[in-house]
What does this fold into?
Amino acid sequence: MSLLRQPILLLSRSRQAKRLLSTLPVSSGIVASYVPGESTRSAADAAARLIDGGLTVTLDFLGEEVAEPEQADATVAAYKDLLEQLATRGLSRKSEVSVKLSAVGQSLPVNGYKVALENARAICRAARNAGTTVTIDMEEHRTTDSTLQILRELRKDFPETGAALQAALFRTEADCRALAHEGSRVRLCKGAYLEPEDVAFQSRVDIDRSYVRCLKVLLAGDCYPMIATHDPRMVQIASSLASRYGRAQGTYEFQMLYGIRPDEQRRLAESGETVRVYVPYGVEWYGYLIRRLAERPQNLSMFLRSLVSKK
Ligand code: FAD
It folds into this structure.
């Protein structure tokens, strides 16, 4: 792990830093390289460009840990608007949406579970009406049980709903086994949050080993694995395991974030793989950007330069 990862990730919890850094416009160099815009229109335009280039997308309306039910309602309205635009523009067959449960109410002090479940259900319904699906993002480890419980509830009516699991957590191999049954869509990522030693692997080597163990469980199972990583080694290992387990292209997919390794996204797509790009949009880009900077501290100086010049 980079020495800078922990201090950078701690910034994501600082309200003062958020107030200062959020004054940057979304169009500023570093923000724009990870987030295509603030509006539904800019998100749908980015989706159209990527789909034209042979890729598929999952769109995320940025925001997390909402503190008021009205903010959660606003998030649901934003997803409904997006899903309508995707359907109208003929983009929904190659697009889906990613939802953070804390953006739809999970973190509310009263009835958080119930509100998040109802709001997520409303988004699943809108996605189905638009001809597409939802994947539930995974947030920090204290939300994992509640998130998987909500997933189970949603899958009763919307079995096409997927969820992300994080290889950094000790529990994830067992969670993969539980979800590796028919039809489940499971996104495997390394995990973007700062997690304590009693629940998570801390070293890159241990996280990578866990990632490979989880890959084996998912690729050997009957689920639809969504392999979310930019790591060239993990991509190569996933490809070999897919062949070893007799998986045809299209029975799993690779996923990468908007703006990260676009050449590799195209290369994989040209080799016949399904590649989905995660496209975040909206004004609440702060937490997302800090997690990306923590993964790539080399970008920190570029970020600080944008802050000084405010462009
Ligand atoms: P790393 O070991 O971090 O990186 C491997 C290589 O990728 C690096 O050497 C570098 O070449 C390149 N790279 C990595 N990051 C960057 C960057 N920021 N800029 C430029 N190059 C870079 N995490 C969650 O906790 N919950 C989620 O729901 C979730 N959903 C995700 C969905 C998708 C589609 C993806 C791709 C990631 C998601 N993540 C999520 C984030 C994930 O957990 C990791 O934090 C992130 O992907 C970095 O891990 P990595 O596998 O790319 O490997």
